[in-house]
Amino acid sequence: MKIPKLLKRVQEYVDADKLKQCKRKDCMKEVLHKLKKQQRALKDKLGKEKNEKERKRIQKALDIIYLQRKKGLKALKKLQKS
Amino acid sequence: MIRKIVLPTILFLLAYGFWISPNFKEIAAGVSIFLFGMLFLEEGFKAFTGGLLERLLRRTTDSTWKALSFGVVSTTIMQSSSLVSVITISFLGAGLIGLAAGIGIIFGANLGTTTGAWLIAGLGLKVKISAYAMPMLVFGIILVFQKSRNLKGFGYILAGLGFLFLGIHHMKEGFEAFRDTIDLTAFAVAGYPGILLFTLIGVFATVVMQSSHATLVIIITALAAQQITYENALALAIGANIGTTITAILGSMSSNVQGKRLAGAHLIFNMVTAIIAIIFLYQIADGVDWVSSVVGISVDDYTLKLAVFHSIFNVIGILAMLPFINTLVNFLMQRMPEKVVSVAEPKYLNDSVIELPDTAIEAVRKETLHLYDNAFAIIAHGLSLHRHDILSDKDLDEVAAESTKVMPVDIDAEYEKNVKGLYSEIVNFTSRAQSTMEPELADELFALRAAGRDIVEAIKDTKHMHKNLSQYIVSDNDHIRAEYNRIRSYLGSVLRRLGVVQQEGDDPTSVLSLDIMKVEMEENDTTVNGTLESLIREESITPHMATSLMNDAAYAYDVTKNLVQMGEVLFATGMQSMKDAERLIALDDEDIAEVLERGNNPL
Questions:
Q1: Searching chain A, which residue's CA lies closest to the CA of residue B591?
Q2: B319 CB within 8 Å of a chain A CB
Q3: A72 and B584: CB-CB below 8 Å?
Q4: Are residues B356 and B266 in the same domain?
Q5: Which of B216-225, B354-363, B581-590 shows the highest mean pLDDT?
Q6: What is the CATH number of the domain that holds B496?
Q7: Phi, psi angles (nearest 5°) of residue B378
Q8: Are residues B169 and B235 in the same domain?
Q9: How far apart are CA B510 and CA B56, in angstroms?
Q10: What is the mean pLDDT of residues A41-56?
Q11: What is the total count of domains within chain B?
């Protein structure tokens, strides 16, 4: 294989990888955005809820979403850096 | 077409037979009652699987000699080798013993039955077991209606034996007309033709009378009246030995392939023994004379000599066949292979999609979902819950408390029928498909295969739980019943929520909501342990119940864990990058521990 052709192949490969990275970032952003929306909705619900058992359940869901978002943001930062 | 007309033809012929012959009606009813007894017997033995009977049988039949002794002793006590072989077929059908042990018992039963000849010839005694049929049925049926699983199982066995005896009784009654026509003097023939003829008569008479003992009585009477020669009497005894296998063959009709194999072994053993006995009849007769003179039996006491002959030729049969037990097992397994009845055929996997990586992955995902649908039914029924209740909005605590009826489900059979074949197809397809895929996509395929494995594991855990669960949800002890209902309701809620996540497949965060189940699973485990402690402390449940509950809570935990793991992979749809993002965010064990630690403190 000639050098220019080889370089072209390498370029294509790098671009494909870039495209994949972009897709990953977009997907991560989309998931984080949805989780944020859920988090807000749950916080509103928690503010209105009087039943103690239900409050505990919502709080648990919030704790989980908080950790999920924390992990997601960390992963997004990594993706943005690379 | 032929299949469609077979059943109506059989029914019509039977109806016609009943109309023209009352004897035929009695015989057919006898066969039906006998088979019904077999079904009862198997049902009864199933109640004891995994328990005392299994351990007892395993210990008493774990070597050929032990199995042989078991056969000899049980036949001597029951005085019926047919009954022992029928019960052994039930043991095999219920999976309590292996084929080799079963064959050992049958060999032993053949020797044990010769004690009957000694009793008839020597003491003129015969234990008439058919007289016990009626009381057995009454006591058995009363016990069948009891709540306790063990009593119920015992009731099934007792009633099953009662029906067997009753069936045999009716068959005998029906054959009464034929029996009157058996006149041995009409066939007196000398030499080998006579031996072969009388062997056949022995087979026929025993098939007709359903008892080799009854044939022996006729032989002894005929011999005493000098209607037949001594050689002919010996040939009749050989024939009776072959004829007695008909009961086992009848019994195996309602059993699975294992039972049929055993009936095959019984027939082969008795045939081989008979052939040896016929070929060496005169030599064995000389041996009988020698033994008789040693033990002090007079030369003309042919009845006792017949008993000696019966024992000797069965011992010869055992000695000749014992070294070949394993060969016999292999032969029967080859000749009568286990049929895998799989109604669960793959719907989405076919060779046309194997070359297209994305399509192949989607096909595997859909097929694994199909597998999950089948597993869902098995797990739900294993918990004695209806699928429609799980998928409804009903309060599952109430559903579990109200539905106290144990659903009759054979998890092993369901697994074989609806899961195993399908799972094998998925594994086979993924192995072939991954070879042409790039690593990233192959990883997804492996994840799907692991999801399939999780489903299978969840079924197996449910199976382990099923025995105790069926026993305790109908228990008189409120505490243990409540705990098992809690397990049912909890697992029902797991299945319900998985159903919701499956429905919301398009929303990427729906799979992430499975993390709540992971946290609850840990919380539930802690709660169960706490409750268990207090129940033991307050002596509300017995230590036996406590151990069962402890084990089953662990199984329930595993079922949840496997199903959640499966859901994370299987319910994630959309493009690969989205699935990757979801998996990066999903909580791992460390994160779950953190959530549990934070408890009620808001972040």
A1: A67
A2: no
A3: yes
A4: no
A5: B581-590
A6: 1.20.58
A7: -65, -45
A8: yes
A9: 51
A10: 87
A11: 2
